[in-house]
Amino acid sequence: MCARNNILMLPRALELAELGFRLFPAHNRKSSGCSCGDSYCSEAVSHPRIPDWQEVATREEFVLREWWTKWPEANIGAVTDDYIVLDVEPCYGGDWSVEQLRKQFGPMPRTWTIASGRGGYHYWFSAPDLDIRAENCIGKFPSIAVRAAGGYSLLPPSTNGAGQRLSWILSPKNTRIASVPDWIVEELEKPSSDSIHEIRQKYRDPDYHPTALGSKFVRRAIFKAAHRDRSYASGIWLACQLRDHGFNFWEAERLMQEYADRLYAKNFDQCVSPYSSKLALASLNKVYAKPSKGPWYYQVPVGIRL
User: Fold this and answer.
1) Average pLDDT value for residue range 37-55
2) CA dihedral in degrees (263, 264, 266, 270; nearest 10)?
3) CB-based contacts of 210: which residues, under 8 Å, 6+ apart?
4) 56, 179, 250, 283: which sits with the fewest CB atoms below 10 Å from its CB?
5) Beta-carbon neighbour count of residue 81 at 10 Å?
6) Global pTM?
7) For residues 46 and 295, what is the distance between their CA atoms, to the nearest angstrom?
8) How far is CA 152 from CA 10, 68, 190, 271, in A?
9) Residue by residue, what is the 3-state secondary structure of the chain?
């Protein structure tokens, strides 16, 4: 299996380097989860295998051969210093965001486009002279991750967290990359003070309500815990969502308590790991001790039934 993946990934990495991408090896999915070995990894299959990846990413063939000989199944990461990449995840509300942007600014220009394997898309734009830093985080657009200077993105045929391969829809072989539209630059240069509540109200989403959003996060966390038997990891995920979407500590504490109570009830009739109120509060304190990263694409927007 490794040999077959080696034949697949190494030639693709060499081919992508010839197209001008600066590459580095990223972790990949294994039967036990992320290849980093952390069973609670929150960045499964998408984070770099090597330190200082921004500095050592390369197009040099001998370096690429060394890396993918050592890690033949490694995903292919590309630095995005000369690009802006919009990572749209429809299943988490990205289609809603794209529709709002399309109404306001018109259709997305024809450019390099990747299918992410989950119904989502990565739109690549050329931005060599722009000094916009977006280090793998949500910018101003709900449920759209923005990657630019200081960031990276995976390239086909890398796998996503579900084990599905990314694939080109419009590739550099047959499509010319578009320059980043002015409206994207203008949006990214605006102050990033908007919370998810303010963003959705700005776009006049009639169904949006913060309380409903918090309840959906709780339901999603319970679903993750019940189907993967990872009560602690799902609790951390829930706390991160609440912090990053503008819930204050006391609002978040109430929702974490709801999560703990509902898991406690589930534990009697399903094989779900025990999860206590004490553990919920400890997780919340741990997460809220760190600064918010802003809204990101694992949010569960109103309109998705869980």
Assistant:
1) 77
2) 110
3) 197, 246, 247
4) 250
5) 17
6) 0.65
7) 18
8) 19, 18, 22, 38
9) CHHHHHHHHHHHHHHHHHCCCCEEEECCEECCEECCCCCCCCCCCCCECCCCHHHHCECCHHHHHHHHHHCCCCEEEEECCCEEEEEECHHHCHHHHHHHHHHHHCCCCCCCEEECCCCCEEEEEECCCCCCECCCEECCCCCEEEECECCEEEECCCECCCCCECEEEECCCCCCCEECCHHHHHHHHCCCCCCHHHHHHHCCCCCCCHHHHHHHHHHHHHHHHHHHCCHHHHHHHHHHHHHHCCCCHHHHHHHHHHHHHHHHHHCCCCCCCCCCHHHHHHHHHHHHCCCCCCCCCCCCCCCCCC
Residue range 158-209, pLDDT digits in tens: 988 777 899 999 999 999 999 999 888 887 776 554 444 454 444 444 444 4
Phi, psi of 279 (to 5 degrees): -70, -35
The answer to whether 161 touches 83, Cβ cutoff 8 Å, is: no
The two tokens of residue 146 are 């923005």
pLDDT tens digits for 78-110?
A: 999 899 999 887 655 667 777 778 888 888 899
Q: What is the pLDDT of residues 239-284, one digit of tens each?
A: 988 888 777 787 788 889 888 888 866 554 444 456 788 888 888 8
206-210-216 Cα angle (round to 5): 100
User: What are the C-alpha distances in Å from 206 to residues 85, 201, 202, 303?
Assistant: 29, 8, 11, 11
